[in-house]
Structures are given as structure tokens and as C-alpha cells.
TrEMBL record:
Name the record gives this protein: Rad51 protein
Disordered: region residues: 97-116
Entry-linked InterPro entries: P-loop_NTPase
Length: 277
């Protein structure tokens, strides 16, 4: 599994180092591939960019299931959140008419969702418009943001669906977003690509061109071998904790004892007297 599955309730996604538009959109599209029904997206700061969505979406029909409303001010954003039930009802009415019902085919993979009711609500940068609106005092802005979060929590419970949110900054103003979240995902950039971690998920594998996979962390091999040891009845040994300086020592071809790190290529690159730096 390269992308996490979204559970019912509010999920907060934090992406280090960027706005994380491709990451957010990939998670949304992956969810729609696995669930039937439309997604309702209350956008802020241009996260619902059609350029990126069209580039990564495997099908145009998938994009047709995403309904976007944009809020360019705090009041517009809050109004779009409040109007979500009206948009949902309008979508259901359109999708259940005779013509639409004959054209729409269910693509549900678990057989438990409807092609007419919402499968996901997305609200990226949920704090952005409330912190940026100069017409609002700080207390009023915080209140309006809290009401928007309360509305989203109500929708998550009422429709029994996930609500995926992000925040523009991690600070005191956006702290209520984390408080309101039922689940938390964090994405960090690594040399091999974005790594997503959560309570029940961690990216451990990345695909390569020949459809093979390679591990991103030693944790993958540790989990794999621990599971195999349990299967054959061998008690897995508790690995020693490496120090910050390295993972032990090694002996070179000249008989010199040197410290070793977790990266043997780095050891060779930085070794003295061997052409290294």
C-alpha cells in the first residue's frame, strides 16, 4: 500500500516543506478509485488545480465526480461549508433522474457505498482564509474557523464519510484544526519520494520502472523478518539502538578499525586514504 486509506471522521494531513498539492490530490483520487459516490471539495489557496488533477487522474470520469466550491474570503469559505448539504442534495437529485441513473454505473469496490451519496469531503488549507481576512478581528476569525470545523465534523458523522483537511501553517491559530481531527497523517519528503506516516500507516515501499519495489527504511526489513521469525517459531531478537555517530565499527582491507554508519556508500565516500572526501 503506497497511499493511506481514509477513515470516517476528520483526517488532518500535514505536508512538510510544501503545500503538498500533488500528495493531497493523489490521496483524494485513490479514495475515489476505491469508493463510489462524489467528492465535495471546498477549496482555498488553489489546491483544486485542474492542471495537476488532470495530469495524475487515470480517468476523466473520475474527475467528473469531484465537485469544487471556492472561497476567496473568510465569509465565502464559511458560506461554502454551510451550503454543502444543499450542494449534496442537488447532486443526489441530478444523479437519480432517469437519464443520469441509466448512464451512471457503480464502480464501488466494497459494495457498501452508493453512487449518489458523498464519499468524501475535502477542505485544504482550512485555516487560510480566516487568518488572512483583514476585515475580521482575531477573536472573530477564530470563531468562524471553529464553526467551519464543527460543520465539517457534523457532515462526517451525518454522512458517515471521511473529511480530509490540511492547514497552511502549524501555529497556535491552526491548533484547533488538529484538536478537531480524528485521524492524523504526516508527509515528509525523502530522497526516494514522499513518505506518509499515520497511526495505522507508513510508506515503506516505492515502485521503480520495472514494476519492482524497493524499501525506503530499515523498518520494512525489520518488520518482514520479525513476521517470518514468528511464523517459524523463532523469537525475534530486540535490535540494539544505534548511536548517533554510527551503527558500529568495521575493519578495512588494511586492517584499520573504522566506525560504520547505516549507509555503506557514505562510509566509502567519506573514508580517508581511499580517495574519499
Amino acid at each position: 500500500m503506497l497511499l493511506p486509506s481514509l477513515e470516517d471522521g476528520i483526517t488532518l494531513l500535514d505536508v512538510d516543506g510544501s503545500r503538498g498539492v500533488p500528495i493531497l490530490q493523489s490521496i483524494v483520487l485513490d479514495h475515489l478509485l476505491m469508493r463510489d459516490g462524489p467528492a465535495f471539495w471546498v477549496d482555498a489557496n488553489g489546491h483544486a488545480t485542474t492542471t495537476t488533477l488532470s495530469r495524475i487522474a487515470p480517468s476523466q470520469r473520475l474527475l467528473d465526480r469531484i465537485h469544487v466550491a471556492r472561497g476567496f474570503t473568510a465569509y465565502q469559505h464559511y458560506g461554502a461549508v454551510c451550503d454543502l448539504p444543499t450542494a449534496v442534495n442537488h447532486c443526489i437529485q441530478e444523479s437519480t433522474t432517469g437519464d443520469s441513473l441509466g448512464e451512471r454505473r457503480s464502480t464501488d469496490c466494497d459494495g457498501e457505498t452508493s453512487p449518489h451519496t458523498p464519499s468524501l469531503i475535502v477542505a485544504p488549507a482550512i485555516d487560510a482564509q480566516y487568518r488572512a481576512d483583514d476585515t475580521l478581528g482575531e477573536a472573530h476569525a477564530e470563531t468562524l474557523q471553529a464553526r467551519a470545523l464543527a460543520k465539517l465534523a457534523t457532515y462526517a458523522e451525518g454522512y458517515d464519510i471521511p473529511v480530509l483537511v490540511t492547514r497552511s501553517k502549524r501555529d497556535e491559530f491552526a491548533a484547533p484544526v488538529e484538536t478537531a481531527a480524528d485521524h492524523y497523517l504526516e508527509c515528509e519528503q525523502t530522497r526516494m519520494g514522499p513518505k506518509i506516516s499515520g497511526d495505522d500507516f507508513e510508506t515503506l515501499l516505492y515502485p521503480v520502472d520495472d514494476s519492482a519495489y524497493y524499501q525506503t527504511t530499515f523498518a520494512y526489513w525489520r518488520q518482514l523478518l520479525a513476521a517470518r521469525a514468528t511464523q517459524v517459531g523463532v523469537e525475534p531478537a530486540t535490535p540494539s539502538t544505534p548511536t548517533q555517530e554510527g551503527v558500529g565499527t568495521g575493519v578495512t582491507a588494511d586492517g584499520e578499525t573504522v566506525s560504520a554508519t547505516a549507509d555503506p556508500l557514505l562510509d566509502a565516500w567519506t573514508a580517508t586514504g581511499t580517495g574519499g572526501r
